[in-house]
Amino acid sequence: MQVQVLSARFDIPDAHRIEVAKEHGAYATLEKVFSMQPEEVIETVKASGLRGRGGAGFPTGLKWSFLPKGLDKPVYLAVNSDESEPATFKDRYILVRDPHLLIEGIIICCYAIKSHAAYIYIRGEYTTQVKALQAAIDEAYAAGYLGESVGGRDFKLDVTVHRGAGAYVCGEETALLESIEGRKGQPRSKPPFPAVEGLYGCPTIINNVQSIASLPFILTNGPDAYKAYGTEKSPGTHLFGISGLVKKPGMYELPLGLPILEVIDKVAGGLRDGRTLKGIIPGGSSTPVLTPEEAQDVTLDYESMAAHKTMFGSGGIVVLDDTVDMVKLVENLISFYHHESCGQCTPCREGLGWMLKIVKKILRGEGTTADIDLLTELCDNIEGKTVCVLSAACTMSTRSYLNKFRHEFEAYVHSGAPVQAAM
Amino acid sequence: MAEKIKLFVNGQEVEVESGKNLIDALGAVGIEIPHLCYHPALGADGNCRLCLVGIEDGRPPVVPACKTRAAEGMKVLLDVDNIKRIQRNVMELELINHPIDCPICDQAGECKLQDFYMKYDGQKSRMSVKPVLKAKKMDFGCGVVHDQERCVLCARCVRFTRLITKTGELGIVNRTDAARVNTFPGRPLNNRYALNVVDLCPVGAMTSSDFRFKQRAWFLTKSPGICHGCSKGCNIYIDHNREKYRDDVIYRFRPRLNAQVNGYFMCDAGRMTYKLENDNRLAAARVGEKSVELAEAVEAVRRAVSQAKKIVMVVSPNCSLEQMHAVQALAGQCNAAVSGYSDGYVQQGDGDDFLIQDDKAANRASFAILGIDSGKAGFDQAIAGADLLISFQNDLTRSLENDTLFEKTQFVLIGSYENDCAARAAISLPVASYSEDTGMVVNCDGILQEYRAAVGKISPAPSLIEVVHQLGGPFSTRDEVLADLTANVAALGGVDLKHIPAAGTALTANEVSNVAA
């Protein structure tokens, strides 16, 4: 089931070093790219059907085409490497094992959108990734792939690594821009959208690491080669981070469209012996949970997830077996989003803290049925009323547990104890 | 006049000014959209989420009104269930961690949280868990006291120090419900407009140490007035109250919107000049050391005038236009010289490029209009050999370097304040101060503004014009002065002095050039 498109050089020793990476094809596609017009590059990416790998799945080529034409302002690329969603750990592999893949992708992207400055925004705590990435960028400058004349062509490109101060919300694209500009990482109201008014008031494209890293393959082998993987509407491959209670958790590259249960069984080794499946978080902690029944016909692509009222997200699959206490899971979940709320707008700032306290109250055995109802209602009262979607990340997921595992909350209300003693 | 556009609110067509956001455009025609963070002087931040309105057929269907421009044909939904639900829910979230200490909160009675709760929320608290506790009565400097628990984090105060004073002392630290407004350690508020954050705060989080716990807002009468702290003439509210068994007392000045004068703000120094109106007032007429009835003092002054060989009358640059003119007329009758000498009212270099002016008097511009000389040379020439000096509100001690003058010349003060100058007067007569009187002043930008009597004392002092009349001046009322000003002062020829617009009237270039002539 596993494929090697993005991860082709992951297992090659020292592939993070430029000479090794080049031996195995890094930067080889630049000649072809520079022979094309920027518009042709955009068309190629559009034709590949590549969708943004940050979670929302917005078509990458289409995003680029939103840049206003004929402006005399500079265009910026911001690569989102904040990767802070719980259960998501895909981009780190690219940054550590094959950083030149990302840099090559950045060159392709910047050439296509006519940008001469790219920022890679990365969480400050990710020191391993920062070191690997910076070393690779230094190598690329030394080898002439970055700087005044990229690959000897008349194309200037500077790449800057910007370390954040460690905030989930800075993965929200406008909070990310605020942070790069040196301000507190708080999302901006939209419109204006970043493609029109982004970094320093200039048109800005913000792409996820994995989206950018997919470009060299697409440009080298053509859009059809990329579309040979995956489904019609969700083409290509994806780095899936499978965690939770499986025998072989880890990062696996798979084509999109595979049945989720088969992947858990065959790729991740299945559940621990004697355990039964209770639920699956399909794409990072913010995506609504799937019950085993729902998971039966779910495939790993955007359309199937949407049809099951959840989201593909970031490919961070968490497998939950019968030992998991869903109420405690929800407490963990809300405490994360509460902690990460930027505190800018009222519903998220005040509401997530209230939700957390209610769940804690239920866990203490002091809750009432009315508290469960209030929790559900608060999800509705907060979601969609905020500047950004951080609160929705919390409420969408929380609501799914409340709806699908309400009996577990009720057990705490009625007996002050979890629903089962399987722990 | 701005262009008009038509849009629909709850299906009703309304005509509004174009180019404004929905809050301002609809607010101008009486349709309220609740909001906490938006303020016209500070722009839209969009953080309170209380102004969310529906846009029929809009994408997205719900938008913050503060960030949405009124557009032709727009179908705004306000009075619909989902918007009313949002307003109620946002209010509930604003209040869950609020201390609801209205009984001891200065803002009670003029608090947006209270008003909006009554209007848009009204539900019982569903908060059954412990609220977030934060710091209280923090001294932010400049007389600003902050209560973090009452704060709704609208960031108006933060934006004020960033956008208006550009001093940036305030910021919001931490995130989530631990977010709070604070100053940087060791760097409190330090600007001359800091107390405006108290007015800007829509709740009771920013209070003034000067006003705290002094009065309930609902007992205060909020009368419009003009600040006399400098020549800017900032429009103010004079908040005063006459409590049982007490006199009418002013508790605070607050800025009143006048776009062509002061905008929404005023300086802290001007704000504190209300104290001069309350304290150390000249209470009774005096002849020598002895307190006398007003009539007796008037008689004493008349006698002095009739006996004097050379009389000089000095008017204060804080006198109103009418008062100055009445004094001029009196001087004409008793052949006295009139001077506006008041160099001491000017603090060279104290002004800034916002509101504060060097000239700490409200009406110096009227000297030019009326042809009153205020130069030192003119004053020295007039005073040479004079045996009677009458001051109308002019605190000469501010301008004179040595005061041998008071020993050589008989000195009469007609004024409102008990100060050094009054102490040196052989005869002193109390008159109403500007907060108790009606008059006009011309500010540093040539804008003529009218103020009306705000404070009503139990034993009101007579107006200066009345006293001038008793001393022999020709005008018995202010109206007579106005008529004479209109008839005989060329610089005011085009102005209808009986109907000064609320925002004041700018004296035209032509009028100013008349003055120069």
The residue-averaged pLDDT of chain A reads 96
H/E topology pattern of chain A: HHHHEHHEHEHEHHHEEHEHHEHHHHH
Distance between the termini of chain B: 34 Å
How many H/I helices of chain A? 19
- Stretches with pLDDT under 50, minimum 5 residues of chain A: none
Q: Biggest interface: chains and residue counts?
A: A-B, 32 and 33 residues
Ranges of chain B where pLDDT stays below 50 over 5 or more residues in a row are: 513-517
Q: How many beta-strand elements of chain A?
A: 8
The biggest sheet of chain A amounts to:
4 strands, parallel
The span between the termini of chain A is 33 Å
Q: What is the 3D form of chain B? A: elongated
Q: Order of strands across the widest beta sheet of chain B?
A: 15-14-20-19-18-16-17
Give the helix proportion of chain A (percent range).
40-55%
**Biggest β-sheet strands, sense, barrel of chain B:** 7 strands, mixed
Widest sheet: strand ordering of chain A:
3-2-1-4
Using only C-alpha atoms, the radius of gyration of chain B works out to 27 Å
Task: Give the topology, please.
The complex is a heterodimer of chains A (about 425) and B (about 525).
Chain A: H1 18-23, H2 30-35, H3 38-48, H4 60-64, E1 76-81, H5 91-97, H6 99-113, E2 117-122, H7 127-142, E3 158-163, H8 173-180, E4 204-208, H9 209-213, H10 215-221, H11 223-227, E5 237-244, E6 250-255, H12 260-267, E7 277-281, H13 292-295, H14 302-307, E8 316-321, H15 326-340, H16 346-363, H17 369-382, H18 390-404, H19 406-415
Parallel strand pairs in A: 1-2, 1-4, 2-3, 5-8
Antiparallel strand pairs in A: 5-6, 7-8
Helix pairs in contact in A: 3-6, 5-6, 5-7, 15-16, 15-18, 16-17, 17-18
Chain B: E1 4-9, E2 12-17, H1 22-27, E3 52-55, E4 62-64, E5 75-77, H2 81-96, H3 112-121, E6 138-141, E7 144-146, H4 156-164, E8 170-173, E9 180-183, H5 196-200, E10 206-208, E11 221-226, E12 235-242, E13 248-255, H6 268-271, H7 274-278, E14 285-287, E15 290-292, H8 294-307, E16 311-315, H9 321-333, E17 337-339, H10 365-370, H11 376-383, E18 388-392, H12 404-408, E19 410-415, H13 420-423, E20 427-430, E21 439-442, E22 447-451, H14 464-470, H15 478-488, E23 505-506, H16 509-516
Parallel strand pairs in B: 1-5, 16-17, 16-18, 18-19, 19-20
Antiparallel strand pairs in B: 1-2, 3-4, 3-5, 6-7, 7-10, 8-9, 11-12, 12-13, 14-15, 14-20, 21-22, 22-23
Helix pairs in contact in B: 2-3, 9-14, 9-15
